[in-house]
Amino acid sequence: MSMTPRQFEARYEPSWIELERGLAALDAGRKARRPSAGEFPTDKAVPPGAARVAQLYRQCCEHLALARERAYPPHLVDRLEALTARAHQRVYRRHDFGLGALRNLVLYDAPAAVRALRWHLGLVALVFLLPILLMGVATWLDPHFVLTVVDARQVRMFDGMYGPEAGEHLGRTSGDDWQMFGFYIMHNVGISFQCFAAGLMLGIGSLVMVGYNGLLFGAIAGFLVTRGDSERFFSFVITHSAFELTAIVLSGAAGLKLGHAVLAPGRLTRTQALMRAARETSPVVFCFFVMLVIAAALEAFWSSAGWVAPGVKYAVGGGCWAMVLAYLGLQGRGHGRPADGESQAR
Amino acid sequence: MTLDTTLLAETPEGIAIVLRPAGAVARSLAYLLDFLIRFVAWLVAAGLLGGVKGVGVGVMLVVLFALEWLYPIVFELLPGAATPGKRALGLQVMMDTGLPVTPSAAVTRNLLRVADFMPVAYAFGLLSMLLRSDFKRLGDIVAGTLVVHADKVRLAGALPPAEPLAPRVPLTRAQQVAILHLAGRARRLTAERVDELATLAESALPPANYAPGGANPAPIRPGPRLIAVAQWLMGQR
User: Fold this and answer.
1) Structural domain boundaries enclosing B51
2) Is residue B68 part of a domain?
3) What is the DSSP letter of A67?
4) Is A321 an interface residue toward B (CB < 8 Å)?
5) Both A58 and A207 in a single domain?
6) A51 and A67 housed in the same domain
């Protein structure tokens, strides 16, 4: 044995202690204090800075490798393992999660990630819009068709929400704005998360969920049109639907992407493909989550306001649709920033 | 195939870091604890806000939403990387590379709870945990995260102090390792058990009545002799 464990420990322990102090200082969030006059950076009073910690960490890795290779006693190896693991977390932690990252996400990454899903988006939009159209026309021709997707009690409820007796507050049976905001958040976010997570079932789940919601929406819209409530209904939905329907399609497309990765992993293993798809769709998830919160707020406080003239609502709603589509379609285009810097970094 | 449930994560320096993934039982208990905490938090919120009509109900629903979706994400991104339930059981969420969990991974693993929950009561999640050697649920697989026991099990501590004695014969490395490991565990065992185990290594230990000076003191039991040899191997002369 070239060096006994005792000699090894005696020679290198000071550097382990220095690393421990440096990590503790970094954990405490204190920046390394600049050494004052007459004090050397290696003095005990000054914890080592980040650069020194990185250097000590690499040294510590070497010591651990030596200790394992030479089968030093377990307490020594354990100590080095714990220290290395702690330093590893500190050295390789990602630091770029501040406001800058959020800004990049909103300005570039989110719309770019949405555009990268264009084929999935197209398919999901088709699966969503086709049932709306078919069901809408079917119910418009024969109002009884609505009963194929919802039961009579719910139909009466919708009738009450948008019928002539709806009065001051549209789109609800009771409750005030705040109460409905809470309800919409719970309900709509739940639907979208289900559309997303159901994608893990080979993507079929997402399509089924989205298609079913399309059927529901089409049936109710068609039914209300035949009842002569079209203006009240459409002026109610136009504003928040810009965010809500888009969010449902986005969540379905993100879910479909996950399912697609499982079905056709390409040259990766299925798990790797799935993880990659999750990384690529996570900005989309952020995007539809924010949109749903906006939609819930609009639906509770703006869409339901009976006193706003339908013309104004159509104008604002149209504006919102244009804004959402322009954001997703155009924002950050030609910026040249790699759409998925994260996967390249790995 | 090893029976251990440890997992090795390799660092860029070529060092393998040992992770201990947490199994279905520990994680279910942590979930139940979290569920209780959230339930109590919701009861408190309901008690405070229930009196206020309209706004109160709305805020209550927003609180319910936050407790359901944001509670795990926020706690897993705080230092410690664990919800209170996980913390109580000594669990921690990290990336399967051994690094701290990233925000996008925390969001992904918690949104995909929906998939784990299907068809009922986290059946898919449990099934996935039971089938995999790293105990990941679907959300963990997709996000590349791992729930681990934060504390390491330490079987061996520092060697008890002793006067060194040279082994009777030169030892191979495997023999040295065995002796060092047993000596490291001596503090956790009774003296009788250490003796019993050390008897197995009798052929490597110095004779019971051996003494460096040549005197012939009372015979020493095998346990202390093994520890003395371990100290000699450590480099004490």
Assistant:
1) 7-149
2) yes
3) H
4) no
5) no
6) yes
